[in-house]
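Our platform keeps sequence and structure together, in a single record for each protein. Such a record has a labelled line for the sequence and another for the backbone structure tokens. Nothing more is needed to write down the fold, since each code stands for a local backbone conformation. For reference, a complete record is included directly beneath this paragraph:
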Amino acid sequence: MSEIQLIKINDFKDKEVDDQFYANTIPNHLLKHHSRIEKPHRHNFYAVFLFTKGYGVHEIDFHKYEVKPGSVFFLYPGQTHGWELSEDVDGFLFFHTEEFYELAYATNSIKDFPFFESNYTEKCFYLNEHQKDTIEVVFENLYKETLMNQWKKKQLILSYLTQLYIQLNRDIENENAHAFLDLRHYQSIFSKFEKVVDKHFHIIKSASKYAEILNISQKHLNRVVKSITGKTTTDIITERVVLEAKRQLIYSDLSLSEIALKLGYDDAAYFSRIFKKNAHITASEFREEYKKEDKE
């Protein structure tokens, strides 16, 4: 078994705007790129999917979500996902790099939208009929624009992206109880923390070291993380390590000792205890469970 396949945005040959953006209907995407996306994989870009028809299951980083009309899924770079969909599935999708969005604006940022943060556990939002009708129109307009060659095409696509992100974020905030508004002043720090963890989790496991990198006190970092996630700083670091271990267990043939070493642990037995405490299952049981599901 090979490593988890990483799909880059320029792997999709139909480049409507540039190498940093891609949009399609879900049926066309499945038809054109079936061989590339049929197995679980991860991206180096942001991805949003709207299902308007059909049913199935979408698995994102080992969490399974129901696919049904009105389902919207958000994936950030590095997440692993795969799906099983009915033949009548329909909808829209778009992918873009961080640079495509960030470099177009002086004030807007992809980090303004909490559904792309790893602490936002639900990567799916189910729209009601009114929400679905409103959002579907923008998705459709965005897709149609990619098929045309009009003046300021990229700018209009970016405008549609911003409309979608703002409207979806409003819908989510209105539907959910957690107080996004109260937490936004901590969100920027937490986003930086996540980026640093994602870069260094193989080597750095110390909360104090991450606070030092961010140039804040460990106490303040703990306060930020607790406010955003309800967890400790160490919890977030450990969860990132265990998530990578799960990916390696499923998508590689590495032994647990090899995975532990790759993730910065010389003692495989100690890492095994960390994995079991976090995943509530042993590493070997986790691997066996997923291999069994693949065979069924």
Remarks:
- The mean pLDDT is 85.
